[in-house]
Write a structure and sequence with these properties.
With about 400 residues, this protein is an alpha/beta fold. The chain is about 35% helix and about 15% strand. The chain folds into two domains: about 250 residues, Type I PLP-dependent aspartate aminotransferase-like (Major domain) (Aspartate Aminotransferase, domain 2); about 140 residues, Aspartate Aminotransferase, domain 1 (Alpha-Beta Complex). The chain has twelve helices and twelve strands. The chain has a seven-stranded mixed sheet, with helices on both faces. α9 crosses α12.
Amino acid sequence: MSEEHDFATRMSHVGRAGSNARGFVNYPVYRGSTMLYENMAARAGAANERFEQKPHYGTGGNVNHWALENAIAEIEGGTRCQIVSTGLAAITVPLLAFMKTGEHMLMPDSVYGPGRNFANNFLSKMGIETTFYDPCIDAAGIAALFRPNTTVLYTESPGSHTFEVQDIPALAAVGRAKGAKVMMDNTWGIHHFQPFRHGVDVSIQALTKYVVGHSDVLLGSITVNTQADWEQLRATASVLGQYASPDDCWLALRGIRTMAVRMERQMESALEVAAWLQSRPEVKEVLHPALPGARGHEIWKRDFTGACSLFGVVFQPGFSREQIWKMAEALQLFGKGASWGGFESLALPTGGGVTRTAGSGEFGGEMLRLHVGLEAPKDLMEDLELGFKALVSNA
């Protein structure tokens, strides 16, 4: 599809055989492990094509995997994509692909918790050291943290709990000048932020979120923009035995067809709910970068074309963690759980569950993370009103 086509148009056609192909609209699900060859020469040749979208063994993927990889590469603006089993695998595989013993990584203090855990409890055992930095650091500040053995600059913008927007172009320019791979968890900004146009080398997605869209599949993707990076990434994923079910890939492709309309509706609804929350006396601050005046808004306005439906709420000082729990428990339309990007709204108290070691993340009150689904905003606000009543009744 041409980049001149609208995003919704491209998502309706990408990863399909094409409107002129005779057959069903969508690919069927192809399941299999063993590939049979006409002769040994053909089998030997297939082993040399492991970086191409050609069948050689089940773990190398099939048309379901390749169609999804092509679709994600187009969304991210990259050239090649590796589908992996989970969003966490989309973090761990490139770190293992591009780092080795004795090296050093810079990772934002706001990073997704399992990513921090992987750095502290797995990479450290491999002799790879991590420095956690303030996500709002500027170019000079990040440059000062580089060491001679720093090989990866990891970013996540906005942070998935406290929504700091990083100055990716400025940070990436420093990272590339220092010879480091610039990685970005772009799950919040999928479609709305084009990582490779802003200097990123490796873009990470938890496809579990908006791509799948129905909270019933775990899946991740890693997108790169050069052949050398692709071969290194692909080889590592293969060595690690990373594989995603073709059924899950098929469901993700199905989710892509409606992703544009879902994201647009959820963005508008989330902004309406977030603006309403700003007016509440119980609320100290709403952490939504797309709101004028919010933290990170100016960078968001410069670099993003839209917003996600996930944001944070900071309550006035004086409300306890137990009161926030009571508020969350009183909600009827917001499920109590992690993840996001699905059709359903979610509420997750984050007080006490976010680790910080670089002095960032102080907001002066207890916090609640909200994901806005496809429900009507007025119904969600009425539900939150019930939550506020429970909040103050337990004061």
